[in-house]
Amino acid sequence: MTPYLIEGDVQYDLLEASLPKPAFELIQEYLLNNGNHDYFAFETTSTFNIKNVIGNNKCDAIINLKRVNDLGYINKFFECINGSLQMGGRYFVACETALQRKRRLLNKYPIGINWIFYMMDFLFHRVLPKLGITRKFYFFIKGNRNRVMHEIELLGRLYSCGFEIVKKRKSNAMTYMVVEKVSEPTYSMKPTYGLFIILNRFGKNGKKLRIRKLRSMYAYSEFIQEYIYQNYSLAEGGKLKRDPRVSKAGKIFRKYWIDELPMIWNLLNRDLKLVGVRPLSAHYLSLYPEYAVEARLKVRPGLVPPFYFDMPKTFEEIVTSEMRYLDAYRKSPFMTDVRYFFKAFTNIVFKGARSN
Q: Given 3.40.50.970, 3.40.50.300, 3.40.50.150, 3.40.50.12780, which CATH number is that of 4-97+149-181?
């Protein structure tokens, strides 16, 4: 570990020598020149070292040159950093993302052999730690060194620990970020990491539902929904355009509704009915006008949404479509669901309707 305190106009020789130019400029522009006074820089994987140097004080900025990939308990480390920063304090992060690791491995070995090696690496580092039956074995064999994570997972972990991204740069096959403390860590949501996930959604009368699905997004994606919404526009069908949280396998799962098969459990225990408006997250529900939220929460959500009945294209059209369904359902519940189900079935099976 190499801790050192930076104050005022001291020389930055050690930092400059330890980082590629774009990363050092990122620190200078968004962290060291932020009008703050107390900066700590480390090269450590230990929360003990952070606490031992900073103590119970709170500083303006922390720089850690050690890769996130080599941290033992990543979230606990981020929580420690959060607790050592003032509100609005900034943290410098270095990480090799999964895509950068893939490129490095494919360039390292001869063509043909490189893809074999990469697939073995993928199965060992990306699949085994996510399966409950092999997770303990993986960490027993490998420990916490050289972890592999997608950039989305890194962002999700940071956001779950009370940070928001300020700026990001890539250099020398590494990703560098400056993030800012905006809140205390989030403990109210249980992070999803394995093959199956449970999502918090709202049902009838605002009841909180735990919706089961097969993972189609990268781990910790649920923590950056607002960030993605702010940086990516909505596509036709009301979903996010080119949502980077969706994995390649997830795109296939979604195309054929494989990811929604576990929702049959929610259907059987009557959290959902067969036809109805889909249960939404708090953030997505906040995008709806107040009258639509009130109308939605008066009925039990469904597995097959009104979307497949009239195929709206914009978010406003989706709201109108759902209000039309809810009005008809209020007058004639059974016949409305029968009519909507068979029309949706026809559109999906014979017309290839999909929700992007």
A: 3.40.50.150
